[in-house]
Amino acid sequence: MSLAVPAATVRLPGLPGMLRRHWPLLPLAATVLFLLAPLPAGDATASGKVGPADAASLLLALVCAVQALRGRVRALSPLGVLVLGAPGVGLAVATMTAGDPYAALPGFVRYLQVFVLVPAAVVLLVRDAREFRLAAGCFVVLALVQGAVGVLQYATHTGASYQGETVRAVGTFGPGDVMGMATVVAYGLVVATAAALAPGLARRTRRIAGACALVLVVPLVLSFSRGAWIATFGAALLVMAMAGIRRALKVLVALAAVGVVLVGGLGVGSEMVAERLTSITQVSSAPDQSVTDRYTMWAAAESMWRERPAVGVGLKGFPAHRDGHSSIGLSSGSDTAGAGQAFIKQPLLSPHNMYLLILSEQGLIGLTALAGGWLALLVAGLRRYASGGGIRDCGLIATGLFVWQLTDFLYADIGGPSTVLTGVIIGLAAWWALPSGTAGASGFDAAGLRAVPGTDGP
Length: 458
Prior knowledge:
The chain is built from 16 helices and four strands. It is mostly helical.
């Protein structure tokens, strides 16, 4: 007797069925969640190190290439191809015109990964709103776990050194990448805030998202990262304004209550937080050494650009040209210690401003290709949200994350394991903002997505 079952009758319920349908997203989820794996001390920012998340992002690009050959990816309009592809041209020009092209090659590979391959793979592989939400949910999971580690570090005095005490929350990233935990926690907080305010989502989902957002405020505060605070505040304000005044007021009241309880009532880092907040307003009148170093490196980056305005000094060229363009006010590096690491002097190898880093190393050609594309994505995303639609939660999440990243780029640049998430965020923003091409033999509809019953398209 034959036990064969017709293929048409086979159904994979539950988790197996989800894996069968969404398996191309597994490398995307791994790219985000592999940042939960702790790195050995000193590896956080080491040059040439390929971490688990970076390896997953390369697998993501490979899966995208295979799916593209099979005709199972989203179609892109000419505008989408231009915005996603132009940075590659600028990077190639900056590499070929560098004083030492071989030294610039690792920078070309890294930039291509973060600003071309990963964003393109996200845009092409994420097929509908459900898959977008799955990807965004990974950011919240990552933030909650890293944030929990950071709070434990503060409570047990096992964090990175800050004002002579080992209390700075850095998660598993270590003191060599003090912005790592703050960055991923901020990502999760923005996603949770957007989901809590999004119209159309179930009330239970919005409540869970709101609770996650409130919880994540604690590790973000304990990171003592002024830049992450500013970027999160700006992104959250925009998300609340887009969601509506009434919803925004509820969130503001809840956040104010959490702040009063934590800092005022429980005294969680009250003196250190107050000092850090005060220092934000003293960047021009009485800056600390870190701010002085940043101003000095900004001036050095501008000087490099003036030397070669069109193409810059070449990828990875800032460290080699830094001393020749810096004043004597620049220190030898920043001190890092704690969280399982001995005292290390961290060299200053970038201007800590992404726009100035691009301008100094890639010139106006590179800045136009990269920042011009980002501006186009931001404008297109805002216009699409303003026009309405059934998946506005995706618009809130994509816009909030993208605005956070663009704001953070004013006083930070790429570096460290969490850098790969920049590419994922640009990809999510592009997925929301870019129109799709017309349908073809691939079986995708006019919106550029495969028509699947029970799912939402963009």
